[in-house]
Design a protein that fits this description.
Radius of gyration: 18 Å
Largest sheet: 7 strands, mixed
Number of helices: 12
Number of domains: 1
Distance between the termini: 27 Å
Shape: globular
């Protein structure tokens, strides 16, 4: 779907790296993941992938996670297949659209790595996670510093978001960090050619650029909004390598395909600028996380 037809010249060498002015390698392979914790997550999770060439990001794939090898619509099959896919990608930077952390008032561990490791035992289910957060305080009180800075739509335990937060941390972020040595930027420093994972928020990115218009829906106005947002991205360094990618992205009425492209674009922009990639951090960031937009 928009991606499975052939292999572009950019897909052939996934090990290509670019050296930053600071001297550490940065990945030329960029992924964007619009995440879901729904029962049918394989249909709701979309993945965009591309390769950096000069200042542009050449997008080669945009597809739902249920089309990955070994995946299916059901969450319990999709998420392990998604992690297996990520592990095969070599050195890459990925923008993931779910909260990586919680408000510092909900975190007793001294650092982010220990918070991740303790999360599944502390919260056995998504419902237990939401109940504990709600008991600790209101959503307004428990918004992270990075949520306020990026003006994200919801707190991590919001009714619309808590399953996404829970399954993202337990089933994707934790195994990638614990088992595959992925680095969570900017909390971790880049190390060798280990994958980089960035928390990204498409809604915040659009809000910053005054493009936050209703684009999720089947009406002609929603389609026009998706076309306008895609047009903005095409003017900001995105190149669509496959002929059918534009139609795939615009035709997806739920906006998940476009959101995954936005995640890839945010990541591409961050990777291309050291000051954006590694900003100065407050003590709260080191516990709660950081949002790129």
């Amino acid at each position: 779907m928009g991606s499975s037809k052939g292999v572009s010249r950019f897909e052939k060498d996934r090990s290509v790296t670019i050296m930053t002015p600071a001297g550490f390698p940065r990945p030329a392979r960029i992924l964007g993941l619009d995440f879901s914790g729904a029962v049918n997550a394989g249909r709701k999770i979309w993945l965009t992938s591309g390769q950096v060439a000069g200042d542009a990001l050449h997008v080669t794939q945009c597809r739902p996670a249920e089309t990955l090898p070994g995946a299916a619509a059901r969450r319990e099959l999709c998420l392990p297949a998604l992690v297996a896919y990520l592990r095969r990608q070599g050195f890459f930077a990925a923008g993931l659209d779910f909260p990586f952390g919680l408000h510092r008032g909900l975190v007793s561990e001294p650092n982010f790595a220990e918070f991740l490791a303790a999360f599944p035992a502390r919260y056995r289910t998504p419902e237990a996670f939401r109940a504990a957060c709600c008991a600790a305080g209101s959503e307004r009180a428990l918004r992270r510093l990075c949520d306020r800075e990026a003006r994200t739509p919801f707190a991590a335990h919001n009714l619309r978001l808590y399953r996404q937060t829970y399954h993202g941390i337990v089933s994707v972020l934790l195994p990638m960090v614990r088992d595959h040595g992925a680095r969570v930027l900017p909390l971790h420093a880049p190390a060798g050619e280990r994958p980089w994972l960035l928390e990204t928020c498409p809604a915040s990115a659009l809000k910053r650029r005054r493009m936050r218009v209703p684009y999720k829906g089947r009406g002609p106005q929603h389609r026009s909004a998706r076309e306008a947002i895609l047009g903005m991205l095409l003017g900001e360094g995105i190149v669509l390598d496959a002929a059918d990618l534009r139609q795939v992205i615009v035709d997806d009425a739920d906006g998940d395909a476009l959101d995954s492209l936005l995640c890839a674009w945010i990541t591409h922009r961050a990777v291309g600028c050291r000051d954006t990639l590694l900003p100065p951090l407050q003590p709260e960031h080191r516990v709660e996380g950081y949002v790129y937009c």
